[in-house]
Design goal:
By secondary structure, the chain is of the alpha/beta class. The chain has helices at residues 43-52, 73-81, 95-105, 126-131, 156-159, 161-170, 186-195; strands at residues 5-11, 17-23, 26-31, 34-38, 63-67, 87-92, 118-122, 136-141, 171-181, 198-205, 214-221. The protein contains seven helices and eleven strands. Helix 3 links the parallel strand 6 and strand 7 (118-122). It starts with a strand and ends with a strand. The structure holds S-adenosylmethionine (SAM). S-adenosylmethionine binds at residues 36-37, 45, 67-74, 91-94, 97, 124-125, 142-144, 152, 155.
Length: 224
């Protein structure tokens, strides 16, 4: 077995230490003592954009917000599903993750930060959500392990009643709030429905290697 090589270290604004590791062709982002994501487990990150941007196939000028960057798979998949005159904003909390994408990880997802339609926001994704009113066609969140399994404590607010209200307000009528999670969380589904979203859940294979694990994606559509 090839040993993991530590490539770089970074720190989130809340002090959480992140590490980039490599073993052969596989990259790993390690955060706070566990694996945040592996480059082998891109399937559900891509599915988040597949489901979350499905309604934008014929949209001339879509505006999509993705949070966070990770290894760029969700961002790349969103870019691949919107038109040439669309904009995909990518909000990333940790500047080191952006640096790692530029230095090491860019080729994994075809250098999505270099696409002219990408607008990078070095920020908590909650900031652009709060600032927007009826503006986004889709908001796609993969910033943590899910509504009830948090790596960053402050992300709790994104999945609670207030965060859901803010996402609802930021979306255009007919817009979609897509959320990735390590696992199902029926109470999150209920909160989305209570706010008035039309909710669908999708169980998606975690890895292209078919390691047998599944992740959960919500698509919550705002009424027209
Ligand atoms: C699991 S990774 C995302 C993986 C991504 N879907 C992909 O395709 O590679 C989570 C990312 O969200 C970032 N993050 C965590 N909390 C955030 C927040 N509140 N706002 C923006 N980015 C955040 C982390 O630094 C990390 O880069």
């Amino acid at each position: 077995m090839i040993p993991w090589e530590k490539l770089a270290k970074g720190k989130a604004p809340d002090g959480q230490v992140l590490e980039l590791r490599r073993r052969g062709h596989e990259y790993l982002i390690y955060a706070g003592g566990y694996d945040l994501m592996s480059s082998e487990d891109d399937t559900s990150s891509i599915a988040l954009s597949d489901y979350g941007c499905a309604h934008l196939k014929n949209a001339k000028r879509a505006r999509v917000l993705v949070g966070g960057l990770g290894m760029g798979y969700t961002l790349r998949a969103a870019l691949d599903r919107v038109s040439a005159s669309s904009i995909v904003e990518i909000a990333e909390l940790v500047s080191s993750v952006v640096d790692w994408n530029r230095e090491w990880l860019g080729d994994l997802a075809g250098k999505p930060l270099e696409d002219p339609r990408t607008k990078l926001l070095l920020s908590d994704v909650r900031k652009p959500i709060r600032a927007a009113k009826n503006s986004y066609d889709a908001i796609l969140l993969d910033v943590d392990n899910g509504p009830d399994a948090l790596a960053h404590k402050q992300n709790d607010g994104l999945y609670g009643k207030r965060g859901i209200d803010e996402a609802y307000g930021a979306l255009k009528p007919g817009g979609v709030f897509g959320v990735w999670s390590f696992d199902d969380d029926p109470s999150f589904t209920r909160r989305l429905e209570k706010r008035g979203f039309k909710v669908e859940t999708h169980r998606v294979s975690a890895s292209k290697k078919g390691r047998g694990r599944y992740h959960q994606i919500w698509t919550a559509r705002k009424g027209r």
